[in-house]
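Pasting two entries for a bug report.
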Amino acid sequence: TRIGRQVTVTAHIKTTSVNATGASGDLYIDGLPFTCNYRAPVQSGVAAAFSTNFPLSGYIFPGTGFFYLEYRATVTGATSICQVATLTAGAVAGQNELVFSATYFV
C-alpha cells in the first residue's frame, strides 16, 4: 500500500521446492514495489521450517527495492545476513516460511 511517500508491504511466503545445488551467497527478498529513499527496517512475524538461522529481520537500503534477511545466532549477539544454506532444500511443500512487514518512504 502506498499513501503519499509512505509504502507498507506485507507478505507470507512458503517454498514448495528448493534446489540450491551449487548456490551460495546472501539470502534476500527482491521485488519491492518502489525504490526506498531512506534505510528502513523489516520485521519478521513468523520464520519457520528453515534449516538453520531463522530470519528475524532485515533492512531495505536506500536506492534499492530489496532487503537481506538477517538472523541472530544468540540472544544478545549481533545480527548477520542469512546465507543460501539457511534454506531447507528439497521438494517439500510448506518449507522456509516467512511472514514479514516493512514501512518505508519513497
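Entry 2 (this is the one that rendered wrong in the viewer):
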Amino acid sequence: EQYNAGLSDCLTPITKDSSRSNHYCYQVLCEQRDELVGFLASHGIEARIRHDFLIPDHPIFSLMPGSYPNARRLVSRTLCLPMHHQLSDEDVYYVISCVRHFYGSGG
C-alpha cells in the first residue's frame, strides 16, 4: 500500500488490491523500464524483470502465428520492485524516493 500511495503518479501497479498479492514482488507497468532498472541499481536497489520475452518467442513455439502487439507492449514495460518480509518501511520509502526522482516527480 505504501508503493501504491507513493508511486501512483509515476507507475501503474499490476495489482492495486494488496489483499490479492502474495507480496513476492510489487509488479508495475512503467515507461523507460530498462533505464529505470539501471538507475535503481546505481542506487543499490534490485528491481527485476521477471518476464523479458514472450512465450511465443521461445524457439519451441516459433511456429505459432501472430505478432501479439499488446503482449509485447506489456512485457516491455513490466518491472518488479522489491517486496519481501525483511524490507523495512524506510527501505520502501527509499525505493519510492528513487523512482520519483527518476521520473522527475520529486522524492
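Dev reply: Rendering is fixed now. As a check, the viewer should reflect this: Residues 45 and 95 are 7 Å apart (CA to CA).
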